[in-house]
Amino acid sequence: MLLIYTLSGLALFLGVTIFGLVSVLIRLNQARDTLRASEEKYRTLVETITDIVFTIDQNGRFTYLNPEIERITGHPVQDLIGHHFTEILAPEHIKSTADRFRQGLSGGKTSNYEFDLIHKDGKKVPVELNVTSLLDADNKPAGSTGVARNITERLLAEEALRKSEARSQLILQTIPSGLFTVDIDRKITYWNKEAEKITGLKTKEVIGRDCIEILDCDECKKGCSLFDKEIDKPIYGKKCEMHINGKDIIISKNLDLLNDENGQPIGGLESFIDITESEHLEDQLLQAQKMESIGTLAGGIAHDFNNILFPIIGYTEMAMDEVPENSTAETDLKEVLKASKRAKKLVQQILTFSRHHDKEQKPLEIQSAIKEALIFLRSSIPTTIEISQNIDNECGAVMGNPTQIHQILINLCTNAYHSMEDKGGTLSVSLVNVHLDAESLIPYPDLKPGDYVKLTISDTGHGMGKTVQERIFEPFFTTKEVGKGTGMGLSMIHGIVASHNGYITVYSELGKGSTFNIYLPLIEMHGMKTKATPTESIQMGDEHILVVDDEEVNISILRKMLEKLGYQVTVRNSSLDALKAFQSQPDKFDLVLTDMAMPNMSGDILAKELIKIKPDIPIIILSGFSETISKEKAKSMGIREYIMKPVIMKDLADALRKALTN
What we know:
This protein is of the alpha+beta class and 662 residues long.
């Protein structure tokens, strides 16, 4: 019985034990399956990852490599397992990489280390390495595991980015525009070479500084206040003037905001160009165009005014011959003639300004003319004004008119005297030879580089402001009080200088006086002779003269003047009628006196037709003013004389005899 119980207990014990063992075995199988599934899953992940995953033992030999190693290096996995990792490293990286692995084997960790692998075909493959140690059950290093990522595309992208940035920098540094950027606090963050060139400020001087502090300019300050919402849209072509280190620079700028990805402003970008010189040239061009327009207007006024003066002077001269000598009438007529001649001189000044008045020029050494003028001035200028002169007696010759050169000197010296008459001062006159190069003549494109004589007239008077300087050469502009000047002096000088193929400059500051510089081109005197002006006696005549003018008042005065001189006169108020009269009886007329400006056919065209009919017919053209003909052009056409209205009887008589006897 005891045995039965004993056996039953043993059987029960064994049953329980077997059941437990079975349960353990079942759990072990389940754990193994789970582990196998987990290993399979992670193996699948490791073997499909696009990076190289590896393990190495304590001796640095590969114990595992995923298939990516073959795609990246061309080496099959089986060729590398059991081999040392250095076998696929670029030689120059073996030592440094081995040191990294030793750190991993000793329990350290290496992150983001870059080196080159050697592909099976010999080319280098750049990779980025992350490696850490493997520990055994006793928590001791048993090897290393790591991941190596192919960074070829990243390095190519970085290189492309570097090249792009380098190109961008090259463009920004070489564009012909100043360029700078500022941050949200208005601090300058970028400053290119052209900005340095324009402003004279180096990059190291401006980076990090407030743009308002650097750019002394009202408009620039507005631009730097973009972030204060004063301006919320781009600015293009804005002109402003900067004052930097005592230098005034006129710029044209473009300005825009720099925004982040959310459209919020993070700074500003400004580009600008220096337009200082172009602005000055533009001002000079506008001044030249204004002067040219005024000159054209002056020529038209002169034409009409001369036609008005002609009969006034003519009738006055003839009336004087009809009244008793020393009578009140004769005295009054003399005053009329005197006033008319003053008006004639004023017209000559207008034409000189507009460069339409012909004055004979000849080779001239102007030293003597200047000295004579200074002697005259010394006697008329008070002793409170000192005259200082520096005249180079060896200055060369210019092609000029002595009377007009005298006018230039007297007018400028008189103006200088007037500016110093209250407090006295020094009037300085100098004459020297200078050579002007192309750069010096940039503001005067009509002039050529070469040798010039420079006449300088300066004073220590009250000077002029910028506004006055811009207008001093305009006719009738004057700062003198009424009765002390007509305003024609400087405009006439401007015209004289231009007619001598020269140019005039002025520099003045309020309270510091004024300086005028006149440049006249030098000429070679070799083989040139000064023409002597012949003098001829005035004679009466009895020849038959055909007079052509479309204005009755001119025909009337010409008829009376010519008949008074003894000539026979036939008049026509139409050039076409005059041509018909001449065609019908060419031998009837000994001379033709014709106006220039007439409807249907001008005087020069009429002259051509008359010469075709009778080549030796003497012709005189009488003109108030014309842009289409000059004395030289008239001579080349076969016209004997060219006379400007108004003409006095003596000059007309001389011209008639000269034309008839030549």
